[in-house]
Each structure stands twice: as C-alpha cells, then as structure tokens.
C-alpha cells in the first residue's frame, strides 16, 4: 500500500531509486531499502503523486474492466439476438411439446466462469510471484486473440471450448486490478478508486450496446453481425494489452513518477504461508466472498440473458439492445457516486451497500409480478433498476480490499472474492428456465431475491460489531504514531499491525 509518509534516507540513497525498485524480497529487505524512519509527505507532493497515479491507472483500468464485462456476458447476450443462437444451435425446439430449450446458451454463459475458476489460482500465483507487466500483458494479448477467434466458431460445442479458454485468460483482470489499487493507494483513497475502475462495467454496457446496435444494421456482408461484434472486441482488447506492458510493478519503479515520488510504497513479491493461514481463518474474508457470490448471481442470469428477456416483452432485437442503456447508466454513475460518498463520510460502506440492495430486489419483483403484454413499461423499468447491483458489487470489492493488509493476504482475499464472483455467475444462468417463460421465470426471480435478502442476515451485523470493537480497542492502546509511520513499509497483515483500522 502507498504510504502517506516517506522514509528518511541519506543523500546517497536518494540517488538510487531504481535499485530500491528492483528488490522484490521480504519486508526486512524493503525496510532496509526504504529506511527505518519516516517523515510525512508534503500535501503538494501527495496530491501530485495521487494525480499522476490516477492519470496513468484509472482510464486504462476502466477500459480493461469494461472489456472484461462485455466479453464475459454482454456480447454473448447481444450476439444471441443477432444470429448466434440459430447459427450455433444454442436453442433447440422440442418437436413434441414445441417448447424451446435454451440450456446450451445457459452453459455457454456458465462455462466462461468455470474457465475463470480454473485460471484464478495460477494467475494469482504469477501476479504475486513475478513482475506484473510480464504476466498481465501476455495474458491480455492471448485473451484478445481468443475473443476475436470466436467469429470462426461454427458449432455450439466449439463455442463451449472457446468460452472456457476465454474465461481462463480473462481471470487475471479483476484479480490484478484489486491488487493494483490496494498497492498504489492509501486505505482512504481505495474506496473511490475501486469503484472508478469497476464503473467500467456500466460504461461499456452502454458503449458495447451502441456498437452492437450499429453492427446489427449490417445486412449483407461476408460476416454475420455477431461475428463483427467479436472481431471488434478482440481488437480493442489487444490495444488494452499494449498498455499492460507499460504497467510498473509498484510505485517504486513507476516510470511516470519522479525518483523522490517513487519512494512512497513497496510491493512484496514473497509468498508468506503465515499470511495465507491467517487469511484462510479470517471470517471477514469469507463473509465478503459470500456477499460477492450472492450479488453476482444476478450478473450471470440477467446480464447474459438480459436482451433475450427484454425481447420477450414484445420488443424487437434492436429495441432490446437499446434497453441496456439505462441499466448501464445506473451502474456507470451509481458505482463511483457511492464510492465518493464512502470516501467523504467515514464508515458508511456497509449501510450504503445494504441500501443499494433494496432497488435491486424491487426490480426483481416488478419484472416478475407485472404484466408482460405488448411493449409494457413496468418490467422494463424493473429491469433498469436492477443496475443498482453494480454499486453493490463495487462496494463489496472496496470493503474487501480496504479491510485486509499484507501482500499475500490481499492476494488471497482477491482470489477468494474472485472465486465467489465466478460461482455466482455460474449459478445465475442455470436459474433461467425457458419452459417457465409464460410464468415470467419464477425460479429466477425467487432465487435472486433470496440471495439478496441474505445481505441483511443478522449474523453479519455481529461481524461488523466485532470490527467496531477491535477499532476501539486499538485506539485505547495509546500507540506512538511515529512507530506506525516507521512500520508502514513492512509487510504486516491487518491483525499484525496494531495501527491498522478497519473501515465499515
């Protein structure tokens, strides 16, 4: 994590920032490099460093998150409306009953996240062990090629294979972004920044829908509209991969910072088994993961099948794509707005998260219980306010990142949250049963409502009370703040560092 203090160094040491950046060892080595005493950063330097980091990281991370979101579900949902379902036989009509079976489409959505699950462990290990640019860059390049190659798939079996490997390579993106933010920003700064990059899911829902709408106008060409969608997505992802090769490993070797500005943080690349054991036994790690899994079930179900569900309201495929705009706008604006509130007002993240769950539940009920006549307004309005699931997930990510410390423990937390995200997305599409379309998919909405109501489980408030008590206990210790500044560069966990404060 970037510190608000700088170590006091000799003049000779000040001239050697590159040597400090090159050492990837443990906290003892980091302390030796960084010095044993600390002095506060001047406000001007702190603002300058923060501005430079924001300028380099945030725009590209928004784009990367948006590309990830569109690849995982939005493209598939839109492509299914424009020929992919029939071309690859993703839906099958029962000749006896006349009902349409979309289970192949459900599995095409879910298998992507099986690929992410399988890829999460090796990718997390590589990120923790090696220089980030040499892991993230090649992985994104391969991801781009696999995405573009989807245009050449001719069978539904081939699509399943392609989707698995697409998920495998893409698994590196959310894990690396959570690690980057927790390493480059202070605890106070993280809430807003985590929500900034995550808002890319909303922005690219809008941008991707606009591009899909444009491609859908193509009537005569060598490629089908859905094939153009994947080729363009692969090309844009390849450009994002070029940025990944410019990514510094930590603030210590950030080429866009001056030598003096670089000495604001240290990234430890040594995997510590003690931190893994602590993380595995830490209840809040699994609590955050459970919330993430529950929240992201809606993503797998509604995002993957959203355009198809809207089309059942009597709207054309083109109109169904346009109705993704309000949902994306709520995500894009709601995520950074809630992050800003949580940065300005201390300890309101959990309250804000619970509040954002309420319109999501209301949206489920409106879709389920309203009339689905020709061009109805109520279910479309309900579908739009489901976009509040974006702030729910964004706040969950920021809570997880801000409440653990220690490089290995942060990586474990990121991996646990990511696994839960995958499980939620795997389960979601399986809740969509095409044979219950006439009853408005009751199994889907009932399941999602139950999962979101679990966010209000009283047992979770007990965990919150424990963290409040722990913060008060640490405040009463009367510790020397100068000692806290001295150990800011040591790789200590939140439980090992008595100066660490939990945010709620």
Automatic annotation (TrEMBL):
The chain crosses the membrane at residues 56-85, 105-127, 134-158, 164-184, 196-216, 228-247, 285-309, 321-343, 350-368, 380-405. Residues 1-30 are annotated as: Disordered. It is a multi-pass membrane protein. GO terms for cellular component: membrane. The keyword Transmembrane helix applies. SUPFAM superfamilies: MFS general substrate transporter. The keyword Transmembrane helix applies. GO terms for molecular function: transmembrane transporter activity. Keywords: Membrane, Transmembrane, Transmembrane helix, Transport. It is found in: Membrane. This is Major facilitator superfamily (MFS) profile domain-containing protein. It comes from Xylaria bambusicola.
């Amino acid at each position: 994590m970037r510190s608000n203090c700088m170590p006091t160094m000799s003049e000779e040491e000040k001239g050697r920032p590159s040597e400090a950046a090159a050492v990837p060892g443990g906290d003892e080595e980091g302390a030796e490099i960084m010095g044993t005493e600390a002095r506060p950063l001047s406000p001007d330097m702190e603002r300058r460093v923060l501005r430079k980091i924001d300028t380099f990281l945030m725009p590209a991370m928004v784009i990367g998150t948006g590309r990830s979101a569109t690849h995982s579900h939005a493209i598939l949902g839109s492509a299914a409306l424009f020929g992919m379902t029939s071309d690859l036989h993703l839906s099958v009509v029962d000749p006896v009953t006349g009902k349409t079976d979309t289970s192949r489409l459900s599995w095409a959505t879910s298998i992507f996240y099986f690929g992410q699950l399988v890829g999460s462990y090796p990718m997390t290990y590589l990120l923790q062990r090696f220089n980030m640019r040499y892991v993230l860059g090649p992985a994104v390049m391969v991801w781009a090629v696999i995405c573009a190659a989807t245009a050449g798939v001719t069978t539904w079996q081939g699509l399943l294979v392609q989707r698995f490997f697409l998920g495998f390579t893409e698994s590196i993106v959310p894990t690396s972004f959570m690690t980057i933010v927790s390493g480059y920003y202070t605890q106070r700064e993280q809430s807003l920044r985590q929500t900034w990059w995550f808002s890319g899911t909303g922005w690219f829902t809008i941008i991707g829908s606009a591009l899909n709408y444009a491609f859908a106008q193509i009537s005569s060409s060598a490629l089908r509209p859905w094939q153009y969608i994947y080729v363009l997505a692969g090309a844009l992802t390849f450009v994002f991969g070029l940025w990944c090769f410019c990514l510094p490993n930590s603030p210590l070797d950030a080429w866009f910072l001056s030598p003096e500005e670089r000495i604001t943080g240290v990234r430890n690349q040594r995997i510590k088994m003690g931190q893994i054991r602590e993380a595995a036994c830490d209840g809040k790690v699994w609590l955050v993961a459970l919330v993430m899994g529950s929240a992201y079930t809606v993503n797998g179900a509604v995002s993957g099948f959203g355009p198809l569900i809207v089309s059942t309201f009597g709207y054309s495929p083109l109109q169904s794509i346009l109705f993704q705009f309000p949902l994306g706008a709520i995500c894009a604006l709601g995520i950074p707005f809630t992050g800003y509130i949580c940065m300005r007002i201390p300890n309101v993240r959990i309250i804000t998260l619970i509040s954002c769950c309420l319109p999501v539940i209301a949206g489920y009920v409106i879709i389920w219980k309203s009339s689905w006549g020709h061009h109805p307004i109520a279910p479309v309005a309900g579908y739009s306010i489901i976009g509040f699931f974006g702030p729910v997930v964004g706040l969950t990510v920021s809570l997880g990142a801000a409440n653990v410390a220690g490089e290995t423990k942060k990586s474990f937390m990121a991996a646990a949250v990511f696994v839960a995200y995958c499980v939620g997305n795997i389960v979601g599409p399986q809740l969509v049963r095409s044979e219950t379309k006439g009853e408005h998919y009751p199994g889907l909405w009932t399941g999602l409502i139950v999962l979101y109501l679990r966010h209000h489980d009283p047992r979770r408030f007990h965990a919150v009370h424990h963290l409040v008590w722990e913060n008060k206990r640490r405040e009463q210790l009367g510790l020397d703040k100068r000692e806290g500044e001295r150990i800011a560069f040591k790789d200590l966990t939140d439980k090992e560092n008595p100066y660490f404060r939990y945010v709620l």
